[in-house]
Design a protein that fits this description.
The protein has 154 residues and is mainly α. The protein has two domains: 1-86, Rna Polymerase Sigma Factor, Chain: A, CATH 1.10.1740; 88-154, Orthogonal Bundle (Arc Repressor Mutant, subunit A), CATH 1.10.10.10. Helices cover 75% and strands 0% of the residues. The longest helix has 23 residues, at 3-25. The protein is globular and about 50 Å long.
């Protein structure tokens, strides 16, 4: 793999990996570390992908696994939810994203992957190793929690 190929993949997917890591880890420094680690893992063992969707799914799967490992190792809770830097967002959208990030892990992942990254529940199930029916239940519960949180603020 040439340097140009690696650079092209990084330019195309680094923001996606960063956002996913930020949603899970809730901290910009940890999310930046996750991006570095995920791409190092790719460089150590390059993969053959069927297409760009398969490639993106692989990077998200590795990101989720890495972030979950980091959360298990963490000895301190992170309550400081930092927002996505340099992302133009309306205040309403920023507030909704903050509420998504504040959800429990199992709900936050499915909401983010479904609504922000555009994956179907079947695709999320393959990425996370979770049954589609479980994801459907989590999505319904996450929507309910979000609805209650957003209604409380209005």
């Amino acid at each position: 793999m040439s340097n140009h190929d690696c650079e092209e993949i990084y330019n195309r997917l680094s923001d996606t990996v960063y956002r996913m890591a930020l949603v899970i880890l809730k901290n910009t420094a940890d999310a930046e570390d996750a991006v570095s680690e995920v791409f190092l893992r790719y460089l150590r063992r390059p993969q053959c992908f069927q297409d760009q969707n398969h490639e993106k799914a692989w990077f998200l799967r590795v990101t989720i696994n890495y972030c979950r490992d980091q959360l298990r190792k963490r000895k301190y809770p992170v309550e400081d939810i930092e927002m996505l830097p340099d992302q133009p967002m309306e205040d309403k959208d920023r507030y909704v994203l903050q509420e998504v990030i504040a959800l429990p892990d199992k709900y936050r992942e499915v909401i983010y992957l479904h609504y922000y990254e555009g994956y179907t529940l079947k695709e999320i199930g393959k990425m996370t190793g979770t049954l589609e029916s479980t994801l459907q239940t989590r999505l319904v519960r996450a929507r309910d929690q979000l609805r209650m949180r957003l209604e409380d603020e209005t």
